[in-house]
């Protein structure tokens, strides 16, 4: 069978591949320590689960509006309005099958053949592939440790051409965990407004930040940036709801109507009773989010301290999310070879940095228990020592 050319342009997800290999080894009884998974290790809070069960009992099992349940859209709009001090209404929101679909729908709605999309590297693995599927051209802009792996206004301005349609901004970042400061966001917003290009702010980790880091949405960073900004987020990370597949996109009402048409011909509505779980997540106390954030903060401290004491590798302390982006450049080995050997020799699963655009790094998730972190970092130290 001859498949469409677009299929050949898409790179398989290395994060999913490594995770699958680790799970297969574990199923064989091998003591694998998995630091590759980008999801909380907590159970979904009980009140959220109870709300979905109640919705099932009440027969909320039929088709719903393609853009999402009206009450959920209203609650998302209210939450965003409180976070940004901007006026979001239900009409500005589409509920999607995970944050990933919100981004994919946006690419399909905004990008035409030949359009350029600026993506700072390191980047989340799916950004370039989504752009390719929409027949656009990913413009990868490398960033480095000395700037906290953040794109500067100067770099952004230099990357914009007459073909630029969209800029992807991820803060807090996957894979680096870095958070752009409010001043940095304001400076980027100024460039966006001056150039008149769209920006999608992937804010899926915005509730998971530490120390003095502060989250400012680029939508609220400039008097005119609201009209150029789409906000992508969801419930997976902050509420431990990865398998629920509940995301959303916020933006201009006409654009949201267009995205709803696309979704109406692909997946239609998100699972109806699952949306009632999301309603409960927003309507009730946010204490469950804070409990998980505090647990991540403690794990971050332990993993960072142990990594910092391993000679031959280095990392910057992350401001948010639950990842360490570890520089292995001094070892003279590719990130794929490093991760494969690490899994085979020490039964530690990490993600090669090449998946995120940097072959001299690996990503380790600390969304796991302290015992696993402590044991894993000791094994990692033994592995690195053997390769020095």
UniProtKB/TrEMBL annotation:
Keyword Transferase: yes
GO MF annotation list: pyridoxal phosphate binding; transaminase activity
Signal peptide segment: none
Name used for this protein in its record: Aminotransferase
Coiled-coil stretches noted in the UniProt entry, renumbered to this chain: none
Cofactor(s) of this protein: pyridoxal 5'-phosphate
Record domain Aminotransferase class I/classII large: where: 31-379
InterPro entries in UniProt: Aminotransferase_I/II_large, AspAT/PAT-like, NHTrfase_class1_PyrdxlP-BS, PyrdxlP-dep_Trfase, PyrdxlP-dep_Trfase_major, PyrdxlP-dep_Trfase_small
PROSITE patterns membership: AA_TRANSFER_CLASS_1 (PS00105)
